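@channel anyone free to eyeball this complex?
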Amino acid sequence: MPSPCIDCLQYANWSEKVFQQMRAGGVDAVHVTITYHETFRETVANIATWNRYFEQFPDLIMHGREATDIRRAQETGRTAIFFGSQNPSCMEDDIGLVEVLHTLGLRFMQLTYNNQSLLATGCYEAEDTGLTRMGRAVVAEMNRVGLVIDMSHSSERSTLEAIEASTRPITITHANPANWHPALRNKSDAVLKSLAESGGMLGFSLYPHHLANGSECSLEDFCAMVARTADLMGVDRLGIGSDLCQDQHDSVVSWMRNGRWTKNTDHGEGSAAMAGFPPQPQWFRDNRDFSNIAEGLADVGMSQSEIDGILGGNWLDFFTDNFAAPAASEPEAGPVFGKRSATA
Amino acid sequence: MPSPCIDCLQYANWSEKVFQQMRAGGVDAVHVTITYHETFRETVANIATWNRYFEQFPDLIMHGREATDIRRAQETGRTAIFFGSQNPSCMEDDIGLVEVLHTLGLRFMQLTYNNQSLLATGCYEAEDTGLTRMGRAVVAEMNRVGLVIDMSHSSERSTLEAIEASTRPITITHANPANWHPALRNKSDAVLKSLAESGGMLGFSLYPHHLANGSECSLEDFCAMVARTADLMGVDRLGIGSDLCQDQHDSVVSWMRNGRWTKNTDHGEGSAAMAGFPPQPQWFRDNRDFSNIAEGLADVGMSQSEIDGILGGNWLDFFTDNFAAPAASEPEAGPVFGKRSATA
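replying in thread with the prediction:
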């Protein structure tokens, strides 16, 4: 079985076309965002929508619940879809919903989107007060059930405290190093090093606002950045989280940024002059272009095994260790659980 | 592995004491009611409460999701708890919640409690209009995902139409024959015969309002009724659904009867003079008394294998066939699916 191709963050306007492009691109698994500011009940409605996709397109996609589902997807020529949330709104103020959402298939949850949440501080707040009391309780509960912590949109101190408080490795599924492109959403070397040392994972973003030179970013520049980050974090701590927002209407990015929290218009990483989704770089338009990244990484000197790891093998290992309760609490034998140290 | 002891309906005021009595009584699996008139969100809160029980009492109980969990419970000395709803309030007006609730562990859902629902007619209504348009859609969806239809509280025509419309066998988890005790909640011979011919199951109730002579019903009388019902339906179509409501405050039976649908007080099977829970018969006080029923069935001439079937073996077979999607829709080999005919 070849090493799988895994994209650890997309939020497309889902359609048969997008699912067919996943197959055309050989994408074996995708972590899809199913909810931003939605309540629990609204999130469940989104899950019901996904259940209809699974019923409607059984030859293209399947619901991914465990890492082994990726192998099953490869064997049956489908893409395994794993659910994630970009904000903890879906769990409301109820710690009992952590396990319920995990049972419904949620595998990643950001402790914040851009704002302060009940759990931690988002990267657009002026003050970062770190994990809240509830944040620490929820981190422990997420560790218990196997719901992976994602700090992609969180601020520096909150992220460092989440790495420290979590007994299991965490993720930044879609962001890039701030040393390459200093955006509020990109991450400091201190965060990236701490993430790597605790066995966590970084997914490189292909969203233009996270790229040096935005939509004009070159493949060479992107891949050279990946290679430098491998030197910093260890090559097996790296994957892709493209943040592909394909075919979305611009009203969707407004929902992502404004939810129901303001009556004004927040432009987030955009601006009044550029309020919508920015155009993708020419070398990564959609799911069919992962091979361009593989070629670009080869051109900056990476080996095939390193490329296989970044394109999906590293996420597969991470999923295997982190999507279920820790092995110790299961009566049956399970995968080895624990933080791993960086290897490079 | 001995034939399991299964009770297919309880709604106790759950506690460590009750769980310990399940163990003391050798009860391997219980279908517990988790919701009556609650909304979806309220039902999820009840599930979260159960998740805490599973976390708190891992040596006594475990969450049952598949029939094989009963064998696992037997092997580890625990009771497998299967979830059910006595009303479709939990799915609101949203057919997408059928699959969501199944994913969260729901294995039985009554199409009605005592009143007209969105799906069918309850046994206390003056007019029975049978399955509604939504009722037929929901029956098909319940068949698809493996959520078992329960018509314990439904009226005659609705029950016959549910048996006819369903492509999989259905249940009356907790009721008795009306020919023995003519209560609104007990069932006609026509319903019982149709249920048996379609491969469905009847669970005998030990709730005093369903018993001839109520709390004073004798074990002998009850067991003779079981034997006569075996002649009518076939002995393998029978099980127990005790309707045990142990340690509940009388306010709970008021919630069951009145929910939020009336500002008056409906006494259901009770009366103003006897508004609360009636006392249990002396020979079935709680989970420790299933052996009395086994002895009583032997005394009316039933064989050990017939008694094993009624005390749990028949429910085990039914659970095995009906708690998952039909075999044909699964890529892997699964249990044989289909209605079975009565054997006696």
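from a first look: Chain B touches chain A at residues 40-41, 44-45, 47-49, 51-52, 76, 94, 96-97, 99-100, 103-105, 331 (CB under 8 Å).
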